[in-house]
Specification:
Helices cover 46% and strands 10% of the residues. The protein is of the alpha/beta class. The chain has a 7-stranded mixed beta sheet, sandwiched between helices.
């Protein structure tokens, strides 16, 4: 639901602004975007399409129920799968069902953010996309009322320096790595800014007193790190929170909904990963590397099937990226020597396994296109569930986009503050 629609019912009562965060709001009541119950209903209705993983499980049950759609997907060339992996409904011959699913999913999208400026000096070497994300986040908070701002999981404090530049007020930053804290303090000192760092593990230390009711700002705090910021705000140890979450899969599994309005969806680790699996900003080189990793993974699976006599997918934990770069023979040697996997070291067997894996990779990717329209609704549901959890505690909450997706696909901002 667009922000303007969410606020429409309260405009007759006058305008207000949430304290602490300093964001602009036309609402005097608590607001929550997007429509969490509708998202839950949409995802529940189509769970049989987005939950199965064709790459891992082979042909999912929906293939038998939708033979024409499955045939069309299987008939796509590798180049067509590459070209339409993010938006398969834009293929000129896309089936009407796929186009309709994508149209339904787009109903939940949020309005785009406004253009942003930059407060970070050009002398500081920060990637342009990072600068745009920081400025977009702060601009969405409205007037710079960040005299008590806390940069949560700050790294070198790129986010912290921007509100410090805008207001001249001191900003605090917490970061686990002491080396990053030292680098961040040096950068702030070079710019004449007062940014005080604290080296602390936010999941291990109680930082409630140190926060002292300030405003938590978190740009892409992964999984439990972001959840800890929300918990502190909910328990009134922070006066407000502005969080751009990411890495939803790095939480306890399965994911249990936090709020009563979330519709009871239980999400497995693979379902949580689906929310962030798109390659909106990935370079061609990174895309090729990902395809090669997929091929290596199924090549190893083929060798495991031959070695064990079990014609089932063999799950295994991830391996170091360097092993993949060395090729299949070296990968098999590492997995055999360091993990004891019964993988053939015969080059002819390995070549055979790779050839057998190639059509499996293509079919898995082609059939997996049906999952693409559900990535964004799933992410919106995850963020809206967190927002509703804060809303149910009495906070004023909104979810909105803070930068363009070409700058970061994780462009959702959850902002919440206690009224009064």
């Amino acid at each position: 639901m667009p922000e303007e629609q969410a606020c429409r019912g309260s405009r007759r009562q006058g305008a207000g602004r949430a304290p602490g965060l300093g964001f602009r709001s036309n609402c005097t009541r608590r607001t929550l975007t997007p429509d969490l119950p509708a998202l839950a209903a949409f995802l529940s209705e189509h769970r049989g399409l987005w939950e199965p993983r064709p790459f891992v499980e082979g042909a999912p049950p929906w293939v038998g129920e939708r033979p024409a759609l499955a045939a069309w997907l299987r008939g796509l060339s590798p180049d067509e799968v590459d070209a339409f992996e993010e938006r398969p409904e834009e293929h000129p011959d896309a089936p009407a069902e796929l186009v309709e699913l994508a149209a339904q999913a787009r109903r939940f999208e949020l309005p785009p953010p406004p253009a942003t400026g930059s407060d970070l000096p050009r002398s500081v070497k920060v990637p342009a996309a990072k600068v745009a994300q920081i400025e977009g986040l702060l601009d969405r908070l409205g007037p710079p009322h960040h005299q008590r701002a806390v940069d949560w999981c700050a790294g070198k404090g790129h986010l912290a320096r921007s509100p410090a530049t805008r207001t001249g007020a001191p900003v605090r930053a917490v970061e686990r790595d002491p080396a990053l804290c030292a680098a961040g303090e040096a950068l702030a000192a070079r710019q004449g800014l007062e940014v005080r760092f604290r080296a602390a593990d936010v999941l291990e230390e109680d930082l409630g007193d140190w926060i002292g009711g300030g405003s938590l700002l978190a740009l892409h705090a992964c999984g439990p790190l972001g959840m800890e910021a929300l918990r502190l705000a909910r328990e009134r140890k922070a006066g407000s929170v502005a969080l751009a979450p990411c890495c939803y899969h790095k939480v306890a599994h399965p994911w249990l909904p936090l709020s009563a309005r979330a519709g009871g969806l239980l999400l497995s680790p693979s379902s949580l990963r689906l929310a962030t699996s798109e390659e909106v900003v990935a370079s061609p080189r990174l895309r090729r590397a990902r395809r090669e990793r997929m091929l290596l993974r199924l090549s190893v699976d083929e060798l495991m099937r031959a070695a064990t006599g079990r014609d089932v997918y063999h799950p295994m934990r991830s391996w170091p990226e360097a092993w993949s770069r060395e090729g299949l023979a070296s990968l098999c040697r590492h997995l055999h020597q360091e993990r004891g996997l019964p993988l053939s070291q015969d080059p002819a067997r390995q070549d055979e396994a790779r050839r057998a894996a190639e059509p499996r990779v293509h079919e898995g990717r082609a059939l997996g296109l049906i999952r693409a329209p559900f990535r964004r609704p799933l992410e919106l549901w995850l963020v809206a569930d967190r927002a509703a959890w804060l809303d149910e505690a009495g906070m004023r909450v909104e979810v909105l986009a803070f930068c363009e997706r070409r700058l970061s696909p994780r462009n959702l901002l959850l902002r919440a503050a206690w009224p009064g």
